[in-house]
Design brief:
heterodimer, A: alpha+beta, outer membrane lipoprotein receptor (LolB), chain A, 2 domains, four-stranded antiparallel sheet, 16 strands, about 25% helix, globular, B: mainly alpha, Rna Polymerase Sigma Factor, Chain: A, Arc Repressor Mutant, subunit A, 9 helices, 4 strands, about 70% helix
């Protein structure tokens, strides 16, 4: 250091300025980063896999839902976590888009209509709070609370009990996670592709906008009077019949931390299982065993309507109410068996191109493939038949 | 966890790897660098609010590319400085904040030389004058001066941040010092020269 620099350093040492860090900003930014960190982990894994929606024409045999954390058993159902993809905006969007980007909390109602199984329509209320807290509540009162930062969740079954889940490893499954929707919302483009004109929704006059992002087309309806978003509609080009509606959307409402508490509610008892998301421990045999168990456990002796998604919880409950499940089987159900089977599917790489075609198929139906996938690193597919035998098959020989 | 000392900064070799997947390790990494980046921002911008905004921008930008960053913690620190330098320079260029700050500082400086601002002590007057002088430098030189004298980075480290050689960094620092000398040459506080 030369003379000038030493002298300048002395000058600086005599000056005072307000340059001490403020812990409030440091902590606030920390929370934002943790939230983004959690979202990124899910997003990166999801992006590393091929979109399941790109397989036009096979949707009717596919149940590859956006909801990954799956259920356990008939009366021990673990509500899944809902992934939602959102929309983009133009003009009137600007404020909506900005609100979403800056929102520290979000609440909305998600209505999904699937053409799988009995064409179930599922309504779920969702609350999100930075950094990575999610609470889903079905109309039947099933609650799932997720703390993505801690990697834990609790599933609460009304009138029954609760189950803990360890979801740390699920961030490595590549499955679309609970923050897919949040991440998509935060990254909304500024402009929509086109305007749709006016439409009345629930008595509110709305302006419509349409945005297409890959396979997903989203319609955004905004109140013409106050500019607030009224409804989103999502449609998938390769999945006709699969629609989602998002409504009752509110940003930055006060959400008490107790809503996201992982403490079991008073009066509820543990169901005696703690589900582990050990994706490496679940094998094809785990899945096959569960398929057999399920088929033998219902009076129609058919395979489950789906092998992924939170809807399976709802469908299972409905089957129980309709008396379709064999009591002697479900009485001693092992919740982890179903969970592990679903984890096996959830953990398959995106380029495994797995497909499920077992809905309504009876066990032991001859020459009937119900599930196929390509294991990591393999050129050949593994095809599971209704008699639960498994064969290897080249891609061009797969069922169409 | 092992700790190694590089350029006076204790680094934890495993932390960078753990932070890629572990929120706790990521938090630790963040807290180890927040004060440093905020300090640099506030010493560049002379404005707390703007410094906090830029600090947020720096860390969020960092997170966007963190998974693909493949360096040790020393390189990570320099990377943060580089992001911050770019963000600050861009901010100055885009918002003409520099002009606004200079005007503000200029008013303050003029004010403190009159009877209208008797509450400013010598240290405060000195601060205003030095700020004013630094802000007359072009942003690239401001970065070098701030890193050298406020953040106490070595020339080699500054060179790494700004992407040049130590020799070039030395030359640019010399030019910045010469400019500062000219700016401060005629300034006096309480009859004493401030010049370097």
């Amino acid at each position: 250091m030369n003379h000038d620099e030493k002298h300048f350093e002395e000058l600086l040492s005599k000056m005072t300025m307000d340059d001490k860090p403020d812990h409030r900003h440091r902590d606030k930014l920390h929370q934002e980063l943790l939230a983004a960190f959690a979202r990124n982990q899910w997003q990166q894994e999801r992006q590393s896999r091929q979109s399941p929606w790109g397989q036009a024409g096979v949707w009717r045999t596919i149940m590859q839902n956006k909801m990954r954390l799956a259920a356990a058993a008939a009366v021990i159902v673990i509500t899944g976590i809902v992934g939602v993809q959102f929309f983009a905006g133009t003009n009137a969007y600007a404020r909506v888009v900005e609100e979403i980007r800056n929102a520290r909390t979000l609440v909305y109602t998600l209505i999904t209509q699937s053409n799988q199984g009995n064409g179930e329509t599922i309504k779920t209320d969702i609350a999100f709070k930075e950094p990575g807290h999610l609470r889903t509540t079905t109309i039947d009162g099933y609650v799932a609370i997720v703390d993505a930062v801690a990697g834990k969740m609790i599933s609460i079954v009304p009138g029954s009990g609760y189950t803990f889940g360890d979801i740390k490893n699920l961030t490595n499954t590549g499955g679309p996670g609970p923050f897919e929707s949040i991440e998509a919302m935060k990254k909304l483009p500024d402009k929509a592709d086109k305007t749709l004109g006016e439409k009345e929704i629930d008595g509110v006059n709305c302006d419509g906008y349409e945005v297409t992002q890959g396979d997903l087309t989203t319609l955004v309806w905004i109140d013409t009077k106050n500019g607030e978003v009224v409804q989103f509609e999502q449609k998938f080009a390769s999945a006709p019949g699969m629609n989602r509606i998002i409504k009752n959307i509110k940003f930055d409402v006060d959400l008490d931390d107790s809503l996201f508490s992982l403490e079991p509610p008073a009066g509820y008892k543990s169901m005696g299982v703690e589900l582990k998301s050990d994706t490496t421990a679940q094998t094809e045999q785990t899945f096959v065993d569960w398929l057999r168990w399920w088929a033998n456990g219902n009076i129609d002796e058919t395979f489950p309507p789906m092998v992924a998604g939170a809807e399976i919880a709802k469908v299972t409950m409905d089957m129980a109410k309709e008396g379709k499940l064999k009591g002697e089987y479900w009485k001693n159900v092992d919740p982890s068996q179903m969970y592990n089977a679903l984890i096996f599917v959830a953990a398959l790489p995106q380029d495994s191109n797995w497909r499920y075609a077992g809905n309504g198929v009876k066990i032991n139906t001859p020459d009937m493939p119900i599930f196929w996938y390509r294991p990591a690193g393999s050129q050949m597919y593994r095809v599971i038949y209704a008699d639960l035998t498994v064969k290897e098959m080249a891609e061009d020989k797969l069922p169409k | 966890m092992g700790v190694s000392e590089v350029s006076g900064f204790p680094f934890e070799p495993e932390l960078m790897i753990q932070a890629k997947s572990d929120p706790g390790a990521f938090s630790r990494l963040y807290f180890r660098h927040y004060d440093m980046i905020f300090s640099y921002c506030v010493h560049r911008l002379f404005n707390r609010q703007t410094a906090e905004d830029i600090t947020s921008e720096v860390f969020l930008k960092m997170l966007e590319n963190f998974q693909t960053f493949d360096g040790n913690e020393r390189q990570f620190r320099n990377w943060l400085y580089k992001i911050a330098t770019n963000a600050i320079n861009e901010h100055i260029r885009k918002t003409t904040r520099r002009g606004a700050i200079m005007a503000w500082v200029g008013q303050w400086s003029r004010k403190e030389h009159t009877d209208e601002a008797p509450h400013l002590d010598e240290s405060q007057q000195r601060a205003a004058i030095i700020k004013n002088a630094i802000l007359t430098l072009k942003p690239e030189y401001q970065a070098i001066v701030t890193m050298r004298f406020f953040e106490n980075l070595k020339l080699e480290e500054i060179a790494e941040v700004i992407g040049t050689s130590a020799g070039t960094a030395r030359s640019q620092l010399s030019r910045a010092m010469e400019k500062l000398r000219q700016e401060l040459s005629s300034v006096r506080i309480d009859g004493q020269e401030v010049t370097i």
